[in-house]
Amino acid sequence: MKFLIVFACLLAIAFANEDAKVLHEDSEVNVEDFKYNLELDNHIKVSQEGQLKDHDNWVVHGEYEYIAPDGSPVKVTYTADDTGYHPVVHA
Fold first, then answer.
1. Using the 8-state DSSP alphabet, how is residue 16 labeled?
2. Which distant-in-sequence residues (6+ apart) come within 8 Å of 39 by Cβ?
3. Span of the secretion signal (predicted)?
């Protein structure tokens, strides 16, 4: 379930600019795993993949990139699992 929250947050970030056009999007969703990639023309990139572990717990790895208001690139990598959301910001 946590991966759905992370996924929803990433989509909110990606679509915050309604004028952005999709340059690339692909996804693969299966019962026990998924992959998702999105790139917009406003320099936002999102990618994540997850695997079901122990019938109830998902382990999700992902990253997203965007340009901050000051013009600097920001990249966040993360893992989300049964212990929580663990981001690392690379500014």
1. S
2. 22, 23, 24, 25, 45, 46
3. 1-16
